[in-house]
Amino acid sequence: MANNEETRGLKSLLDWFANRRKSGSSTPEQERQEREIADGLWHKCSECGVLAYTKDLRANQMVCIECGHHNRVDSDERIYQLIDPGTWRPMDEHLRPTDPLQFRDRKAYAERLRETQEKTGLVDAVQTGLGQINGLSVALGVMDFRFIGASMGSVVGEKITRLIEQATQRRYPVFIVCTSGGARMQEGMLSLMQMAKISAALQRHQEARLLYVPILTNPTTGGVTASFAMLGDIILAEPKSTIGFAGRRVIEQTLREKLPDDFQTAEDLLKHGFIDEIVSRTQLKKTLTQLIALHQPPVVATPHNMVMWETRTLSSTGVD
Q: Average pLDDT for residues 89-114, to the nearest whole number?
């Protein structure tokens, strides 16, 4: 009897919503705002399905309190999590990608860039800058998967190279939060050149006996893995991140055998010695602080050494 009443009540509620839409009592704008409010207040974990209050989830670094699943976060959120408030100084925000090959797949590359920039509010797939982590001066680069899969084009390569050179000049440690689908095919050979350019800058940084730590997040693949993501003095990764060069399907087709379920996970790479440690996002800032203290003396921030690096004219790398 009670079940029948509950069913009738549910149907009545659904009918009320349906009639409300048909009657036009709420405008499309009101419905959109209601959906955004509902979506913004709560978050459903894609791993365990638990609903979490978004404010609590953000306070826990977007890590599920129930199962520890690390939700993907954008570059702005990463900077907020790692850098002390009021100390972030972005670099090279004026650099913008161009279309040197006039490339077109399903749509023109120039159009794809414009749409992605409008959607994300970013100029390209990485943000770089100087800041402080628990009072210690650092150079930080953060890749953003929302921007064409954080593929590495000329601007990404140039910004990361300039960041490393600036850190070498100031004797700052470098941290790069890596996530990428690989090289940006729309820029052809210009994209592949960035691998060598960044690696050369890291070599000079290493010769100056300065610290470089990449933080590998989900996913880190392709040319990024084949270059600066694996050149760190210490390589960290987030739990259960996908890390590799070629895709799983390509490798299986080449080897003609089934790969283990945990293949190309952070845990598997740690077991085989490709990375040094898996660090939860909630412990990352503390871990980076400890690494700075262990590997080099702190650089005290002064008005002189926090002056922005003089912008240099780009070489012919296909960017403005």
A: 95
| Alpha carbon separation from 112 to 77, 102, 147, 207 (Å, rounded) | 24, 12, 10, 39
Structure tokens at 71: 């939700």
Q: In the chain, where does DSSP find H-type helix?
A: 2-23, 28-41, 54-59, 75-82, 109-120, 154-170, 188-207, 222-225, 248-255, 266-271, 281-295
Predicted confidence (pLDDT) at residue 275 exceeds the cutoff of 60:
yes
Q: Write out pLDDT tens, residues 158-203.
A: 999 999 999 999 999 999 999 999 999 999 999 999 999 999 999 9
8 A C-beta contact, residue 130 and residue 139:
yes
Residue 211, helix vs strand vs coil: coil
Q: What is the pTM of this model?
A: 0.80
CATH architecture of 73-295: Alpha-Beta Complex (3.90)
Residues 6+ apart with CB under 8 A from 40: 54
Side-chain-facing half-sphere of 112: CA atoms under 13 Å: 20
Residue 218: which pLDDT band, with cuts at 50, 70 and 90? Answer: very high
Round to whole Å and give the CA distance between 241 and 221. Answer: 10
